[in-house]
Amino acid sequence: MCSPDHYDVDYVINPWMEGNIHKSSRDRAVEQWHQLFHILKHHAVVDLVKPQLGWPDMVFTANAGLVLGNNVVLSRFLHKERQGEEPHFKAWFEDKGYTVQELPKDLPFEGAGDALLDREGRWLWAGYGFRSELDSHPYLAKWLDIEVLSLRLMDERFYHLDTCFCPLKGGYLLYYPPAFDSYSNRLIEMRVPPEKRIVIAEADAVNFACNAVNIDEVVVMNQASEALKGRLASAGFRVIETPLTEFLKAGGAAKCLTLRVTEPVRTELHANVLVESRTIRLEGHLLDTGLINRALDVVVESGGSFQVLNFQLGEQRQSTSAAEVKVSAPSHDVMEGILSQLIDLGAVDLPQDERDAKLEPVLQVGVAADDFYVTTIYPTEVRINGEWVKVQNQRMDGAIAVTHTPNGVMARCKLLRDLAVGDQVVVDVQGIRTIRKTEAREQRNTQEFSFMSAGVSSERRVELVVEQVAWELRQIRDQGGKVIVTAGPVVIHTGGGEHLANLIRQGYVQALLGGNAIAVHDIEQNLMGTSLGVDMKRGVAVRGGHRHHLKVINTIRRCGSIAQAVEQDVLKSGVLYECVRAGIPFSLAGSIRDDGPLPDTQMDLIKAQQEYAHILEGADMILMLSSMLHSIGVGNMTPAGVKMVCVDINPAVVTKLSDRGSVESIGVVTDVGLFLSLLVQQLDKLTHPYLMAQML
Ligand code: ARG
Asked: Residue 124: which region, alpha, beta or left (left: phi > 0; alpha: psi -120 to 50)?
């Protein structure tokens, strides 16, 4: 221990210190410290370290280092406010004859505050996330020759492992689970059987109940609820409470004020680390596109840690940058999760250049091995027998199936349900790379469709988008390309039907995807003048109008199909009429709430998905008009590189759809009827400039 002669709250390096600068009473602190000292002296031998002026947190000797047997791993404090304590603690350890191990510079580790031995000595629990770096854990394993289990801290109030976690004698564990991420909780539950886990409530946690000193059956702490005392008593422990409120103001209590220097070594046990490291390489406009930030965020948010080994900065606007980053994760599972996200961002796993993708056979129809790689919209390649093979049928949320054909190896995206026994599916994350096209700032600014890509447009910008879309539509039509529209019934309700019909008539649309409703209401409007019973000219509900759409369904059913209704001269105008006239394919996917349905509606959803996918092949652009479900379905089937324009009055829908992380998708929050009318106007302007000028 270290007496509090110079103790004070002088600075803020944890949330407890906030608002407490110079608010603790030295006298009371001294008194509380002495009480603790006397209690502990009764149960153990207590040595003292000489306090140093100017290092107020030195009382918290738990942070001096981590001792096991004759070895000490000296702390490397994260904050400069405490770094000056290091030489004093080091001198003390050396003086006592310990072998002092020092971590590399810039690799923070805060001693026994963040590393707690199982009280049976079976392994070391090591925390990371705030003060200690995950990469310090392999050093602990090596120097102390012990298994290290890494736990990730998530709540900044519990910034050191010993603030929320306390191994007790007999394999018991006192802890506060919400302070850890779910992976860590699972690890704890795997190592500590349920009857040995003593979970505490938040109220005890904020009283630092886990920051307890355990000597045999005695547990010394600041304060415990009756419930907690009872629980500990039934496990055979006796709680001694001693107020340490003055130290709580600095974010510490009983355990922080002590360092155990007589930890027994179990010689039969040896080092083992679950921590894995890999080196990845990222290339492209890393800064301009924010790719490097996103990649590093992915690592940290998923529970890993990183070290940038090398960053070559592209100095010209057009030149790309390259970074090599060492990524560490507390386990192979977490590493897989991180790497698959990094691969999606275009990273390559470096040593992987020499490794093939791992394959696992499908043993049950429609079921892949657990750790199958889930595909994205980005072009992907897998390494098979030393060769990079491009994956066919790229779409998101599939598995990659590899087959050997007479013409060589073939890899393709397959939906789970399409997996056949004998297919080889790519698992794990090695031997996989995705190709992300990252444009330079310059290119991005001149490229069509780019100016809106940063986010969802505001009302004022609708016209700008309309201009862009009109231009694109004309280009695609003139080049014989393919534009696909997905539309919901709102297109009809908002009066957009005639404009969409117009676009089809003029050859701007090559296929229509929707559900039962768009067709029903389009036909209702063209046969009866209402949409869902509302008169489209006057905008008022028609008496008995709610029956209209059923009459319409009945009529089409009598004809046999929409196409037959057109042939029989029953249906003479509208969106579906134009589709039939122009001979462009349409697919209507059914749903549970459909009335009728129309004979054309595909109620077998697997077939409907297949029809959609077939129609979508080779699309250049997709206009998504107020239909969340059909549009999301379409988005999932579409590889990167296809331009997508999503129009919806609900910003949430637009955000969801345009947030594919690909430069080609843009969102417009506006009334879809209005959008279509502006679009038709703009196209007319492009076609008949003279006429338009006269009209204006
Ligand atoms: N003020 C000190 C800090 O933030 C408190 C240290 C508490 N020690 C501990 N082992 N939890 O570093």
From this structure: beta
Going from N- to C-terminal start, the domains of the chain cover: 15-262, 275-354, 358-427, 448-516+571-695
CATH for 358-427 is 2.40.420.10
Cis previous bond, 651, omega within 30:
no
Indicate if 448-516+571-695 has the same CATH topology as 15-262. no
Residue 454 confidence (pLDDT) above 90: no
Is the distance from the beta carbon of residue 75 to the nearest atom of ligand 1 less than 6 Å? no
* 15-262 maps to CATH 2.60.200.30: no
Report domain 448-516+571-695's class: alpha beta
Cα(130) to ligand 1 centroid in Å equals 12
Q: Which CATH superfamily is domain 275-354 in?
A: LOR/SDH bifunctional enzyme, conserved domain (3.30.70.2690)
Helical pair 516-528 and 548-559, crossing angle rounded to 10 deg: 100
Q: Which two tokens stand for residue 116?
A: 């707690």
Which atom of ligand 1 lies nearest, measured to the CA of 131?
12
Say yes or no: CB of residue 163 within 6 Å of ligand 1: yes
Q: So which residues are the catalytic ones?
A: 160, 256
Sequence-distant (6+) residues with CB within 8 A of 104 are: none
Give dist(CA 59, CA 385) in Å, integer: 60
> How many angstroms is it from 183 CA to the middle of ligand 1?
25
Please report the pLDDT score of residue 456 as a whole number.
Answer: 53
- pLDDT-based confidence at residue 451 (cuts at 50, 70, 90): very low
Distance (Å) from CA 324 to ligand 1 centroid: 34
Cα of 60 vs centre of ligand 1, distance in Å, is: 6
**Phi-psi group of 233: left, alpha or beta (phi > 0 → left; psi -120 to 50 → alpha; rest → beta):** alpha
- State how far the Cα of 387 lies from the Cα of 384, in Å rounded to an integer: 5
Q: Which structure tokens are listed for 484?
A: 């696909």
Tell me the β-bridge partners of 534: 531, 541
DSSP string, 286-341: TTTT-HHHHHHHHHHHTT-EEEEEEEE---SSS--EEEEEEEEESSHHHHHHHHHH
pTM score: 0.76
Q: How many Å apart are CA 486 and CA 626, to the nearest integer?
A: 8
- Give residue 101's pLDDT band: very low, low, confident or very high (50, 70, 90): very high
Whole-number CA gyration radius for the chain: 33
Residue minimizing CA distance to atom 8 of ligand 1: 256
User: For ligand 1, atom 6, which residue shows the shortest CA distance?
Assistant: 252
**Higher per-residue confidence, 540 vs 193:** 193
The closest alpha carbon to 630, from 489, 515, 521, 523, belongs to 515
